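tool=predict chain=A
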Amino acid sequence: MSKSNPRIKLQKFWPANFLPDETREFNEITENFPAMLAKLTNKSKVISIYENFGEVGVGKATSRKSLTPLIPALKLSEDFKGIYLFWLNDEPFYTGISRGVIKRIHQHIKGSNHFSSSLSYTMGKEFHNEIEGIEHIGTRKELDFDKFSGPFKKILREECQISMLPIKGSTQLYLFEVYVAVQLKLHYYNRFKTH
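tool=predict ok
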């Protein structure tokens, strides 16, 4: 193949050194999902967000130290790839995935805008609609983040709990997020709408 001729990489053109993220069949990837869900929803593994992420002065390094007994992989790494599940009053209400779960949780509860604190933004947008009686139709940036989303960051930080599960494979991680959302009926905040 000439470098001057662009070509879509069908399988026969994949580079010899290409390593796919996942080589297992779909059933092999998903067969452990019930056991993984049981681990994620184990009430003994649900922890306080405030104590482990939200207190004043608690940054990523402090969070990592407090989480190491729960997530042994943190002995070797500053963060971990996986899934997290937000809880309030013993009820899960939102799940998300990240390449850096500790960093992502800090963003959710301490982020200063709609990009970093997307769950708070979603909740704030809905709150705007309730308070103002009209749907917010402007851009994400045009929503008064402090007024409408700020209260939700505070609730997430001070009143909610979280559970987490490390997952290394990207394909398994993406599929498991949808599985968790469907199995736990997290339809309100996990809508999976395309943009």
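Strands lie at 47-48, 82-88, 91-98, 161-166. The radius of gyration is 19 Å.
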